[in-house]
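Homework help board

Subject: predicted structure for assignment chain

Our instructor gave us this sequence and asked us to write out the predicted structure in token form, then describe one feature. I got the tokens but I'm not sure how to describe them. Can anyone check?
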Amino acid sequence: MKSQALADAFNQQLTRETSSAYLYQQMTVWCSEQGLAGFAHWVKMQVLEERLHADKFFDYLLDRDVAVHLEAIQAPEKSWSSVSDLFASILEHERMITDAIHSLMELAGKEGDHAAKTFLQWFITEQVEEEANVRDIRDKLKLADGFGPALLMLDADMATRPVPTPPPAG
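My token output:
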């Protein structure tokens, strides 16, 4: 990498991605405790996706011969007032991740690290998809507005989320 600042920023993003998986794991527990197996499945698939994202950063750092620094992960929030509140939290979290990826891209641009910019472009596109998917679920939950049968239909739909596939290498 062109600078230690960029290497440090990539390591911080590795920690963010790992922390995201940990947060979503806790959300899976909460959904299960609420009897929302479909939502628990959807969030569990998010756990797997975030682990794949963390692995992608991990491998990239190793490929670039950058020291990897695994940092401590803070305990995540443990409860939400409703599944709507949970998805509002997910959207807020994904927006924070998007901002972090954009900051990395800006730093890579300032450093003139074209390989880092190419690597990050996949994540920029991925974050657009992440936010759109979560917004869609949040909006459906707003329409359901606590109506039990609608919530059960959405729960059944969430159970159909496929297992994420690993992102392209590099």
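Reply (TA_rk): Your tokens look well-formed. For the description, you could write something like this. The chain has a mean pLDDT of 95. That's the kind of observation they're looking for.
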